[in-house]
């Protein structure tokens, strides 16, 4: 498969098995606990459009998904605009280097432009050098640092 043979499209219900395999691979790559309930839940969110979540896939000429991207809109109060957030991007190991990631990023940029959104934003692991090489070809790393604050425990 050449880069020109990579196509992108929104997921459909018939992509369930392939998407779930890719998403499970994504979770494994990031050393997240195997949890089919989480995979099922996220798939359901995408199919129903919950949390404004949409799923894209990259396919070869055979229309079998080889990569996924999960995106959602988000409010940007500082600019009074809306952006597009890329939550997940993953290419199957067998398909890496064939242009699927670039094709998905280009499609996402086109969607953001078509929808009048102000930015496409995402985070990645600072140690994920292959992904960062891809991202550096398409986007600019920002100066912002990400923090996670756990929710407070409920008190009775």
UniProtKB/TrEMBL annotation:
Residues 6-156 form the N-acetyltransferase domain. Keywords: Acyltransferase, Transferase. Pfam families: Acetyltransf_1. The keyword DNA damage does not apply. This is GNAT family N-acetyltransferase. CDD domains: NAT_SF (cd04301). InterPro entries: Acyl_CoA_acyltransferase, Bact_Acetyltransf, GNAT_dom. It comes from the Bacteria.
């Amino acid at each position: 498969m050449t880069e020109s043979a990579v196509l992108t499209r929104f997921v459909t219900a018939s992509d369930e098995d392939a998407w779930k395999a890719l998403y499970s691979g994504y979770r494994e790559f990031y050393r997240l606990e195997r949890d089919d309930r989480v995979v099922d839940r996220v798939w359901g969110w995408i199919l129903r459009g919950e949390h404004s979540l949409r799923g894209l896939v990259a396919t070869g000429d055979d229309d079998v998904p080889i990569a996924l991207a999960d995106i959602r809109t988000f409010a940007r109060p500082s600019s009074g605009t809306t952006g597009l957030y890329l939550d997940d991007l993953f290419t199957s190991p067998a398909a890496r280097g064939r242009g699927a990631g670039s094709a998905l990023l280009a499609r996402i940029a086109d969607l953001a432009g078509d929808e009048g959104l102000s930015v496409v934003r995402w985070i990645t692991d600072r140690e994920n050098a292959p992904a960062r090489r891809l991202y550096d070809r398409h986007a600019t790393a920002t100066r912002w640092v990400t923090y996670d604050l756990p929710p407070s425990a409920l008190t009775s």
